[in-house]
């Protein structure tokens, strides 16, 4: 028996392990959970900390093995001491427990390997996430910078587009006005052609009448001459008859005289000569004959209104301060404040003007937030020399002729407008130069805008263009909210007192920008 027990010791070792398998499985499960917790916690720490926790786990398993071996041996001894019939079921159970333990051990090892691989994968993913976070931050910074750049470019583009739209509207309005002027000119030329055709028809009919009169005169001339010869023959017979009655005794009989050409000495009947004088000889019509025909126009002469010579202001004094714009700088601007305090349905603007350039610049510009061309006397170098655009509420305007102002002398200019029937008048040196109607009929110029002299505003109070600047001098400028009558315009042009009702004068000039100079002259001829 002792030999048998010693031979079964090797077989008892698995049985002892099977006997202690549930305990080891429980310990292994506890260690598996602790190991899993350790591995999971290592995902948040460093690899050195993970290795430290794995070392602790090994030491705990070794101490558990030293405790399990004596228990296993003690169980084996008890089995040997017990009856033999009870040992086989026990060994079978222990074997099954051992197999279960091995399977559990394999599962635990597989699970631990999977956890370790997940730990390595999570560590790599964490590093990749950190790299992606840095890259995303760099991309976000670049996107923000590009967005700021694009927004700045868009702002500049919007500003350029607004300016381009305003200029295109101005160009369109000018093109419309030029089209209207061309159509009006074509209509005027067609009317002139019709009048010329009527004149030619009248002249041709008159020429036909003259030719008919000449033909009639040519036919009547031989008849008159034959009648004169017959009258001469009758006079000769009468003389012979008178002589026969006075002489005594018989006289030889005479044959009746044959009609023939009268002798030069024979008298001619007076009525024949009168008839010859009454028949007019063909000659050219007098020079003033065309002026009496319908549709004909007299050529302009020295007294015609078309060729009126510009009047000189002479000694005009007491006109107030003088503003001098020396060059075309965009900084040369004068602000009139407080502007228009109420809406205007009528307007009169008068001023003494002397230009020092080959074209007229902008005399006056009134802009609001709604429209930068509410009221403009606009001139620029691209217009016809001496012309200016009278704008009320862009794009409507009228082109005014101011060619006399290009001689470098002082001239008095008055521009008058009323919303009643849209009538307007232009006076230069007391003379009415241009007039019209249907210009902004029923319109009202709104208050609250910016009113400047010498520059054209593309926005309220700014965005000037040197090609539209005024170069020269202004004096005695005044604005009324009513229509001035011709007598008041004449008084202004001769240096008399201002008419009542002015709303703005050069005394309201609150800002002189750039190189604009202000001078006080007793008379215009003494101004610089």
From TrEMBL:
Residues 1-38, 242-311 are annotated as: Disordered. GO terms for molecular function: metal ion binding. Residues 249-267 have a biased composition (Pro residues). The chain crosses the membrane at residues 61-78. Coiled coil: none annotated. Its cofactor is Ca(2+). Residues 319-523 form the Pentraxin (PTX) domain. Keywords: Calcium, Disulfide bond, Glycoprotein, Membrane, Metal-binding, Transmembrane, Transmembrane helix. InterPro entries: ConA-like_dom_sf, Neuronal_Pentraxin_Related, PTX_dom. This is Pentraxin 4. It comes from Equus asinus.
């Amino acid at each position: 028996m002792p030999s048998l027990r010693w031979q079964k010791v090797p077989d008892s070792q698995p049985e002892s392990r099977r006997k202690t398998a549930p305990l080891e499985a429980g310990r292994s499960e506890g260690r598996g959970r602790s190991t899993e917790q350790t591995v999971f916690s290592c995902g948040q720490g460093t690899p050195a900390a993970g290795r430290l926790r794995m070392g602790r786990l090994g030491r705990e398993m070794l101490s558990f093995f030293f405790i399990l071996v004596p228990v296993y041996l003690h169980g084996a001894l008890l089995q040997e001491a017990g009856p033999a019939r009870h040992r086989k079921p026990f060994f079978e159970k222990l074997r099954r427990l051992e197999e279960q333990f091995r399977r559990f051990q394999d599962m635990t090892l597989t699970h631990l390997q999977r956890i370790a691989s997940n730990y390595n994968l999570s560590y790599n993913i964490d590093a990749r996430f950190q790299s992606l976070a840095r890259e995303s931050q760099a991309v976000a910074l670049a996107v923000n910078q590009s967005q700021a750049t694009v927004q700045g470019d868009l702002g500049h583009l919007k500003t350029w587009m607004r300016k381009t739209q305003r200029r295109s509207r101005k160009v369109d309005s000018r093109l419309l006005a030029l089209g209207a002027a061309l159509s009006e000119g074509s209509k005027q030329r067609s009317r002139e052609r019709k009048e010329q055709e009527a004149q030619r028809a009248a002249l041709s009919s008159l020429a036909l009448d003259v030719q008919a009169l000449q033909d009639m005169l040519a036919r009547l001339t031989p008849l008159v001459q034959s009648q004169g010869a017959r009258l001469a023959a009758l006079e000769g017979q009468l003389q012979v008859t008178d002589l026969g009655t006075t002489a005594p005794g018989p006289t030889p009989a005479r044959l009746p005289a044959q009609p023939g050409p009268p002798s030069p000495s024979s008298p001619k009947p007076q009525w024949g000569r009168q008839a010859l004088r009454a028949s007019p000889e063909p000659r050219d019509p007098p020079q003033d004959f065309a002026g009496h025909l319908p549709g004909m126009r007299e050529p302009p002469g020295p007294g015609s209104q078309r060729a009126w010579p510009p009047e000189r202001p002479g000694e005009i004094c007491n006109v107030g301060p003088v503003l001098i714009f020396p060059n075309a700088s965009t900084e040369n601007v004068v602000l009139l404040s407080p502007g228009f305090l109420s809406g205007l349905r009528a307007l009169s603007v008068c001023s003494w003007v002397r230009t020092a350039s080959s074209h007229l610049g902008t005399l006056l510009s009134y802009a609001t937030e709604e429209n930068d061309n509410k009221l403009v006397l606009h001139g620029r170098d691209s217009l016809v020399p001496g012309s200016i655009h009278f704008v009320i509420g862009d794009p409507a305007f009228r082109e005014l002729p101011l060619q006399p102002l290009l001689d470098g002398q002082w001239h008095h200019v008055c521009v008058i407008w009323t919303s009643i029937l849209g009538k307007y008048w232009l006076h230069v040196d007391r003379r009415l130069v241009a007039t019209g109607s249907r210009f902004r009929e029923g319109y009202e110029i709104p208050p609250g805008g910016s009113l400047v002299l010498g520059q054209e505003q593309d926005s309220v109070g700014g965005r000037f263009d040197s090609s539209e600047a005024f170069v020269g001098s202004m004096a005695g400028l005044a604005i009324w909210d009513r229509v001035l009558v011709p007598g008041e315009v004449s008084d202004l042009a001769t240096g008399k007192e201002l008419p009542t009702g002015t709303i703005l004068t050069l005394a309201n000039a609150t800002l002189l920008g750039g190189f604009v100079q202000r001078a006080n002259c007793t008379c215009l001829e003494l101004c610089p």
